[in-house]
Each structure stands twice: as C-alpha cells, then as structure tokens.
Design a protein that fits this description.
Number of strands of chain B: 0
Number of strands of chain C: 0
Mean pLDDT of chain B: 90
Radius of gyration of chain B: 16 Å
Low-confidence stretches of chain C: none
Helix content of chain B: over 70%
Low-confidence stretches of chain B: none
Oligomer: heterotrimer
Shape of chain C: elongated
Number of domains of chain B: 1
Chains: A mainly alpha, B mainly alpha, C mainly alpha
Number of helices of chain B: 3
Helix content of chain C: over 70%
Structural class of chain C: mainly alpha
Number of helices of chain C: 3
CATH topology of chain C: Helix Hairpins
Number of domains of chain C: 1
Largest sheet of chain B: none
Structural class of chain B: mainly alpha
Radius of gyration of chain C: 17 Å
Order of helices and strands of chain B: HHH
Distance between the termini of chain C: 58 Å
Strand content of chain B: under 5%
CATH architecture of chain C: Orthogonal Bundle
Mean pLDDT of chain C: 91
Largest sheet of chain C: none
Chain lengths: 317, 94, 94
Amino acid sequence: MEITLWHLLDSLLAILLLGLAWSALSGTDLKRGVVLFMAFGLLLSLIWARLRAPDLALAEAAIGAGLSGALLLLALRDREKSENKAGQPMSLLRLATVLLMLLLAASFALAYVTAVTSNTGGRLAGLAFGNLEQSGVSNPVTAVLLNFRAYDTLLELAVLLAATLGILALGSERRPFRRPGVLLGALVTWISPLLVIVAGYLLWTGAHAPGGAFQAGALLAAAIVMLRLGGMTSEQLPHPLLQGWLLASGIAAFMLAGYLATFHDLAFLQYPAGWAGLLILLIESAAMLSIALSLGLAYLGGSPSGWDERSSRGKRS
Amino acid sequence: MTELLGSLFILASLAFFAAGSIGLLRLPDVHARLHALTKADNLGLGLLVAGACLIGGHLLLALKLLLVWLLVMFASAIAANLIARHAMKDGEES
Amino acid sequence: MMLTQLIFGIAGGLLFAMGLRSALIRESLLARILAVNVSGAGIFLAFVAIAYRGLEETPDPVPHALVLTGIVVAVSATALALALRRRLEEADDE
C-alpha cells in the first residue's frame, strides 16, 4: 500500500478523534466533558465528509453535535449526588475491565480486517446501484433509506415515537427561559425563519443531492430549540391534539403508502412503478415534521404545560 | 492560476486560525480569549471561503459559501457578546 | 483493503472499547450516557470505513443509510436517558 498525504490526514483525524474522546470521558468535570463531546461530534462530522458521506456529515453536525449537545447542556443543570465524588483509586476490578476492553478492541480489529479483506459473495451496493433508476430518486442514500430499506426507516420512526412517549410520560417540561435581551432576540428572529427555509430546501434536494428528511427534521428541531432559548413557552406550541397528529404523521404516511400498495396486488411498501418519487417526497415531508416535533419535545424535557387539561375533554382525574 | 490563488488564500487562513487557537490557549482571561476567537477566526473563515470560492468556480457555490460566512459572523458576534456579559456579571459577584 | 479503511476501522474499534470501559467504570449517569454515545460513534465509524471505496468510486450507500438511522436512534435514546436521569434525581430528593 502506498502512503499518500491523504493517509497522513486520516491518521491525524483519527488520533485527534481518539484524544478528544479520551479527554471527554476521563475528566471528572462533567461540563468540560460535555463541551469536549460536542467538539468530538463536530470532528466526527468532518471525518464523515472525508469518507465521502455528505448526508452523514450534515446529519452528524445537526443531530450529533448540535441537538445532542443542546440536550446534554440542559441536563448539566440536574445535579447528581454521585457527580461530586472524587476519582476512584485503581483497583483490581478496574484493571480487569481495562484488560477486557483491550481484548475486545483486538478481537474487533481482527473481525474487521477479516470482513473487509475477504471477498465472500456480492455486496449490497451492486444491487442498490443497479436498481437506482427505478427507485424514484437519484441520491443513493435516500433511495436505500426510503425505498429499498423503507421498512427499517418505518421502524426507526416508531423508535423515535416510543422515545418521545417515554419522555412525555416521565414528567412535565422544564421551566421556560426568561425573555431575551436585544441581541439574543435579534438572533432568534433572524435565524429561525432561515432554519425553516433551509430545512425545506434540504427536504427537496434530498432526492438528488445530499440531504433528506432527517437532516431537514433536525434543522426544524434546532429552530424549536432556538425559539425555546428565546423565551418561547409551551402555550405557543400548537394545540396538543395537533401535536399528537404531527408526532404520528411520519409513521402514518408510511403505513398509508404501504397499505395502498397492497390494494394493487403489490407487497407492503412496494411502491407502484412511476409513483415512487412522489410517494417518497410525501413520506419524507411527514417524517420531517414528526422528527422535528419529537426532538423539539425532547428539548422541552417533558410534557408541555396544559398537555393533560387541554387534550382530555374536561375529564378530571 | 485561480487554483493557486485559492490555495494561497487557504494557507493564509490557516495562519489566522492558528493565531486564534494560540490566543485561546495562552491569553489570561475570558474577555481577551473572546477577542482572539471572534476576530481571528472570523477573518480566517473569510479567507477560507474566498479560497474555496476561487477553487470551486461557479457563482451559486460562491453565494452559498458567502452566506455561510455571514451567518457564522452574525452568530459568533452575538454569542461573544452574551459570553462577555455573563463573564462580567460573574466577575462582579466573585 | 485500503489503508484509510484500516485506520478508521481500528479507530472505531478503539472508540467502542473506550466508551464501553467508561460506561462500566464511571459512577455518574451523565458520564455513562456520554460514554455510550462515544461507543455508538465508534461503531458508526467502523461502518462508514467499510463503505469507503476510495476517491474515485462512489461509496457504498447501504452502510451510510444504516448509520443515518443509527444517528437518529442514538439521539432519541440519549434524550430518553436524560429524561430518566432527571426523574431519578427528583425521585431521590423526595
């Protein structure tokens, strides 16, 4: 194998990534750990761009570094009793754990090298690229996500909904932030509409260029986070009934498209010929709204105030 | 020729980013570090965007990169002000 | 196999082991959530490294789609874990 400058860059990126992860995980100060984790997410996004995965780079920057970081920064406020303890002295159990982890990393490396170097059978990439024209979109990642492996994406939306239901059931939202000053207010006023526009653009362009429903949904969730930081209260969110519909709309669109296919003697989620592009766009739009509201409600931290009173029709518990 | 000029711009931006990072590590307090970060890094990003526009070639790419630079300047200016006010308030209380 | 795939695959395995070790050893719940996220990032890195085909050829889109699903699931699991942690702290105070 020849060593080029690209390999020098790759080694630098990998070493920097490992160093950031180590300092994020090993310090006792959790504030520092969270900020280093956000930097880790940004560096990971750069590595996705280096590995020619632009959809992943967009998603990692928006979701992995941005939204995860915002959630973790909020969670720093909830003080924990075990956080104030100093570092534990090295004991036999900890040494055994380190050795076990080294063994795990070594066996992972062995499995990885074996999997990549052996040429056992055809890769799925051939199938994906071969059927790309009939999939309705020209971005291969979108085609795999929403056509060839649409079932996985349906289940992913279900996982997202389950997590949101768990968050809503665990308690009420955090206290809203106070009214912003002039500068923060200006930032929120200018950036939120821009986020909505760019989200719509990413949704549209996901069919033929890097982008898609997940990145667009993450940007809309970032708009909700910005509005929340600018003092939005949960009374300004849509009505709880509408929120429930929006949360379920991604899965509903998938199921509708899937069942409509069965009326034409096709399998579940087998899009009819010629309709694939339109169906994918409609499903992606609904999924974008679901993802945005799910992640936005996750930032709120629990069920918004008035969730129980307004959505139940006057029943007293 | 334009590629060479673009590469020179990007190399110049590296110097500014390095200056900003050294300032972050070596300057004594929050306000001085904010100076280094916002001024040096924004100018470095501007030079990087200029180099990328020259190498990239078409107008739409240049407009998008310019929008990125303007957004970063906008957000970092406001963030720097918020951090500085918070640090000043913390400094008065301690 | 390409050297790039080897470098990033090994880095992914090390990240996974590092995150798992921290998740087992640290006592603070927030540190454990960070550690599990780092483990997940290591696995994603290994996937995308497998999908890489060099600078000329288009990379394999199937692992990219799997990792995109994984990123969204990871953030929703993190959100649920943080809500659980908050509820646990409130329950301990009662």
